[in-house]
Each structure stands twice: as structure tokens, then as C-alpha cells.
Design a protein that fits this description.
Aspartate Aminotransferase, domain 1; about 400 residues; Aspartate Aminotransferase, domain 2; seven-stranded mixed beta sheet; alpha/beta
Length: about 400
């Protein structure tokens, strides 16, 4: 008997539909170019927006932490796993976001799971943008709260549910920058609704922290509503490029998570070197605003070039530019041809995005050179003319 035959059949079906995925091994440090199969290619599908993944100061901070504290924490945070770098990181990131307290997690997924399974409870309401990250959606689905989704162009639906008096607590949960569309939430409007109906506003700044705002705190700062955000979730594996995540909020919220959030309680604490690396990344974000400026310049240039080529980039206004293809087969073909030309862009297909919106997700780095950007444009022009 083949106990896993049904899995093989499902995988064969995915392959036939051009939905099969596999990992591509990067043989070098992350940067604007990387090595794949022994050759250098320009990387356009990384979240290493500020090019901090290989920064010497972050590497050195991790090395020094390992030398002083070892590698593993060897225990949960509520046992003996809380170490000096965790505490120092929490204090520094809380101050950075202007919140009274913060909590360090091993990943953005565990941070969202902790917040959204511990805080919303039976009798509460959670409103989600329909394009929120899977970590948000999956967490809310497992909570006992009632939840509804909304479209960013229909905040009237948000107000309708917020006005319903039957709920005890009401939560609005959104990403600030949407990872597949590259556009931004209307945080000003959501903050107004939050204040009008005494709701809690939770903002995931995964793709904005370090990259947006005059101080680099994210899009909420840029939109002028950071003080209105009750809970900031800041995964640190993208702009800061060090891994881990921060939740910043009022002290009572952080204390509640420490006592009630199962993903925080029942797991080994993150390596102390991870927290130490985040402190080094934070220092760079605060002291090197030129990285944000270069990132925006590169994104603005490429957006203009894509528009001139007639490419559909949705409503992107950030350093993430989706190029809509509309067919899984064509998207995979174009991605394969681009890689042969020396440009690594992954094909994004369902269930990550809705059917019919298959795309290339082009993500910009501050250290991309102009020739990288123009080379990609030329390759896209050539392959789109051939395949679309």
C-alpha cells in the first residue's frame, strides 16, 4: 500500500497546472546580485530592500553575541530563555516605535499568531483586509472572535461592522504595505474609523519598517498616524534583514501576550544573536537614511520605466512592483526566460494571488545599480512581446 500516493497525485496535478513550486538554492550572500548554479544573476525577488542582509556591522554584532552568550537560548522565554540581548532589543525597538513596551519573537508569523490568537476573543470582532498576509488570516481563523474581510476600496464595509453594537472589542488588522500588490493601506481613514468606534488598530509593517517614514519606522509614520496605531507588528527579516519580529504596544498588551500568547509561551526563545543583530540593524536604519532615499529613487525610476512599457503594475506606490501576466503558464515561462538572461524573478501564482492575476513580483533593493534596472526593463520588454 502506498500511504502517500494521494500526495503524489496532488503534486502531479500541481505540476500539470504550472502550480508546482520548488526552492532555488542561492550559493552566495544575499545582495543585489547572487550566485545560482555557479553564475551571477541580478536578484529581483528578495525582500533585502536596504541591503542589510550582509552588512558587516550586523554580522559583527551577531558574532560578538555568539561569543558572549553562545548560540542557542535552550529554553522558553518564561523559563530560562530570556537573555540580555532580548531585553535590550525590546527596549530599543519600543522606543523606536514610540510605544511603552515591546516583545521580541522568532518570526513575523509567530508574532501575528501570538497577537491575533491571544487578544481577540469570543464576542469580539476582527476586520481584515482581504489581501492581508497568510499569517494574519490563519491566526484570526483559529481565534474565537468573529471576523470579516474588506476591500481597501470599500471602507464603508468596515464602518458598517464597527457600528454594530453587539461586539465587545473591535479590531482592525492590516498590513501597511501589501506584499503582492505593492500598494498601501489607507491608514488615515482606518485611524479615523478606529477613533470613531473605539476600535483597536493593528498594523503589520513587514514591508515598510526601515524603508518608509522619515525615521524609518514604516508607513504609519509616513502617513502621520503612528501614534494612532495601537499595536505595531514589525517582522525584521525584510528591511532590517536580520530575522525575528517585534510587537510594540502598551505595556498591558505586552504583559498579556507574555502570559497568554501560546506561540510565545510554548517555544524555545530566539537565539540571542538574532536579537543582537536586530539592534545593529536598528542603529543602521536610524543613522543611514540614504538607504531609504536610494530605495525610493530606484523604485520611482523602475515604476516610470514599467509604465512606459505599458506593463500592468496595479496601484503600486512602493518598492514592490507587481507585473501582472494573468496566466500561470506564461508567468512561469517569462520567469524562466528572465533567469536565463541573468535576472531572478519568481513567478507568483495561486493561492498566493487570485487566479487571473498571476504575476512577477519585482522587489527593489537600494543597492541595485541603474544598469540592473534598465537591463531588467529590456528583458521584460523582449519577453512580454514574445509571450503576451
Amino acid at each position: 500500500m502506498d500511504e502517500f500516493g494521494h500526495l503524489s497525485q496532488e503534486l502531479q496535478g500541481l505540476e500539470a497546472q504550472q502550480m508546482y513550486r520548488k526552492c532555488v538554492c542561492i550559493e552566495s550572500a544575499q545582495g543585489p546580485t547572487v550566485q545560482i548554479d555557479g553564475r551571477r544573476v541580478v536578484l529581483f525577488c528578495s525582500n533585502n530592500y536596504l541591503n542589510l542582509a550582509g552588512h558587516p556591522k550586523i554580522r559583527q554584532a551577531a558574532i560578538e553575541a555568539i561569543e558572549k552568550f553562545g548560540w542557542g537560548s535552550a529554553s522558553a522565554r518564561l523559563m530560562s530563555g530570556t537573555m540580555t540581548p532580548h531585553v535590550e532589543a525590546e527596549r530599543a525597538w519600543a522606543k523606536f516605535f514610540g510605544k511603552p513596551a515591546a516583545l521580541f519573537f522568532g518570526s513575523g508569523w509567530s508574532a501575528n499568531q501570538s497577537v491575533l490568537t491571544a487578544l481577540p476573543q469570543k464576542g469580539d470582532l476582527v476586520l481584515l483586509d482581504r489581501m492581508d498576509h497568510a499569517s494574519i488570516i490563519d491566526a484570526v481563523r483559529t481565534s474565537e472572535a468573529q471576523f470579516h474581510t474588506y476591500r481597501r476600496d470599500n471602507l464603508g464595509r468596515v464602518e458598517k461592522y464597527l457600528a454594530d453594537p453587539q461586539y465587545r472589542c473591535k479590531y482592525i488588522v492590516t498590513e501597511s504595505v501589501f506584499s503582492m500588490d505593492g500598494d498601501t493601506a489607507d491608514l488615515k481613514a482606518l485611524a479615523e474609523l478606529k477613533n470613531k468606534y473605539n476600535a483597536v488598530l493593528i498594523v503589520d509593517e513587514a514591508h515598510a519598517v526601515g524603508c518608509m517614514g522619515s525615521r524609518g519606522t514604516g508607513f504609519a509614520e509616513e502617513a502621520g498616524v503612528l501614534e494612532e496605531v495601537d499595536i505595531v507588528v514589525a517582522p525584521l527579516g525584510k528591511g532590517p534583514a536580520c530575522g525575528g519580529a517585534i510587537v510594540a504596544a502598551d505595556k498591558v498588551v505586552i504583559e498579556y501576550l507574555i502570559n497568554k500568547a501560546r506561540p510565545f509561551i510554548f517555544t524555545t526563545a530566539p537565539a540571542p544573536a538574532l536579537a543582537a543583530a536586530s539592534l545593529a540593524a536598528l542603529e543602521i536604519i536610524q543613522n543611514d537614511p540614504l538607504r531609504r532615499s536610494r530605495l525610493k529613487q530606484n523604485a520611482d525610476f523602475l515604476r516610470q520605466q514599467f509604465s512606459q512599457l505599458g506593463l500592468n503594475i496595479c496601484s503600486s506606490n512602493t518598492h514592490i512592483l507587481p507585473v501582472i501576466v494573468g496566466s500561470a503558464e506564461k508567468t512561469v515561462t517569462i520567469a524562466r526566460n528572465l533567469l536565463a538572461d541573468g535576472f531572478f524573478c519568481t513567478a507568483i501564482r495561486p493561492p498566493t494571488v487570485p487566479a487571473g492575476t498571476e504575476r512577477l513580483r519585482i522587489s527593489i533593493q537600494c543597492e541595485h545599480m541603474r544598469e540592473h534596472l534598465t537591463g531588467l526593463c529590456e528583458a521584460l520588454r523582449r519577453h512580454f512581446l514574445h509571450n503576451i
